[in-house]
Amino acid sequence: MTINESDASHPSSPEITQEDEFEIGGTDSSLVAEELEKKQVTGKSSLKTNIIKGTSFLLESNSSLQVAITPRILLFTTLAIAITFISIVINNSFLGILATLATLLLSLLILFPWLQDVIQEWFSPEDRNVFVGLIGIVVAIIGLFKFTHLGNSLLRWGRRINWDASGTLAEWFGALGQIAIAIIAVYVAWRQYVISKDLTIQQNLLTVQQNIITQQQTIDSYFQGVSDLVLDEEGLLEDWPQERAIAEGRTAAIFSSVDGSGKAKILRFLSRSKLLSPLQRDRRLGRAILDGSGGYAEDRLEGVRVIDLGVMLAGADLADNDLRWTDLSEANLIRANLSNCDLVKANLSRTILYDANLSNADLNGVRLFYGLVEQVSPRSRTERPNYETGEHTGAVVENANFTNAQRMSESTRYYCCAWCGEKTRSTIPGGCEGIPNKLGR
Prior knowledge:
By secondary structure, the protein is mainly alpha-helical. The protein has helices at 3-8, 13-24, 27-41, 46-90, 93-122, 125-147, 150-160, 167-230, 241-255, 260-272, 410-419, 422-425.
């Protein structure tokens, strides 16, 4: 037999009667009626339907009973209060005790739901458990002292103690208390120091982050300012002396206000923008000349740089930074710190690296000179460079530190060994055996 057949086999008139009763009943009966309708729609069995109907009838009866009892409790409580006052007036102890107990019982019965709601609202189950546990411990201690005669034993032991002779012991305990107070004070002071130190560290971290954000905003403003200064409306490089002078001034100023990471970002921007390279110029118009392949033509001998670094980076700390493909030719990097720098494909020809630190730097493809390594020589103050033979096109590497330099080519190693001096030859990876010291000192 299917579910529909089972439902159809029962008469519909009793169900209609029950639903009418649900509508007449209270809130609980309405909820049960709705649940009953849902069960009937989903096609539940008639047995479950009859059970739900019986439960709803009991709930309806219980609600009606509570509604009927509440006015009676109020009436009985009022009568009990009146009898209590009458007993007080006529001074009848027996009747007063009965009336008082009845009043107390009925009042607690009325207040019980309110007290239950207050306890559930203000006290969590954990708090109630802790409260009951504490009461249990107190009652257990009282029972332990009462039924095991432990309290009497303690009293007898206390009577045998000579309290006058125990004064010294009390003084000892007082001294120990003072020591404990001093220890607690030291602990509190130490905790305050630790908290203050943590707050200081957090404040320093926030300050560092703020400085990084401020520095990046300064660098972005510099990038935009230089771009607007040296480019015309068509996006071509200007070559007016005043623009170049202002651009160099801005660069020198910002180098003094940023750290090594900021300097590296500025150098990469200027180098990739061809602002550090000597560009070929139109001698009449002063404009940079295009090379015919989408870029500007370079002229190492007669070209003009938009920004000439000069001594801006002398003694600068550029350690642990990315300087790949940067054009630092003819810059003064005396005593500069380039340790752990990535100098892949960087142009350091005619750069002054006297007493510079290039330890652990990546020198793969770095350019220290032009021409043939056998004919090359470092830059000279008086002689013009020859970019075909390499004379006076090399970097000044005297007293530089090449300890553990990475991926140094053979030509670079030969040039450094020949022109770095005795002090630096011992720091070059691979050694300088068989390479003459052309510097002579």
